[in-house]
Amino acid sequence: MNETQVIRIRYWAAARAAAGVAEEQVPVDGPVRLGDLVRTVLARHEDSRLGDVIASCSVLLGEQPVSTRDPDEVVVPPGSSVEFLPPFAGG
């Protein structure tokens, strides 16, 4: 599959544990909305607690944080990476 026809999903920490993989690729026909991409990923892992973990994650599109933008308004082009980073404790 051509790199421009996929979106790479990366999971960190608790998200990786819930997904059971560190990363995966989602085939796409063109740009997709982040909300649709998240729904696709959750459908792949419907028997896990990934949905609960992702709900608390920070999301990066490439190297840019999505922040409080509506996921259904954020367009993800093919060839991009989306990363799910759960909150980290530290001190």
In short:
The chain is α+β, with helices and mostly antiparallel strands and 91 residues long. The chain is built from 3 helices and 7 strands; from the N terminus they run E-H-E-E-H-H-E-E-E-E.
Describe the structure.
- This protein is an alpha+beta fold and 91 residues long.
- The protein is 25% helix and 29% strand.
- The protein is built from 3 helices and 7 strands.
- The chain has helices at residues 14-19, 34-44, 50-55; strands at residues 6-11, 23-27, 32-33, 58-61, 64-65, 75-76, 81-85.
- Strands 2-1-7-4-5 form a 5-stranded mixed β-sheet.
- The longest helix has 11 residues, at 34-44.
- The radius of gyration is 13 Å and the shape is globular.
- The N and C termini lie far apart (43 Å).
- 20% of the residues are buried.
- The model has no long low-confidence stretch (mean pLDDT 92).
Topology (elements, then pairings):
Blueprint: E1 6-11, H1 14-19, E2 23-27, E3 32-33, H2 34-44, H3 50-55, E4 58-61, E5 64-65, E6 75-76, E7 81-85
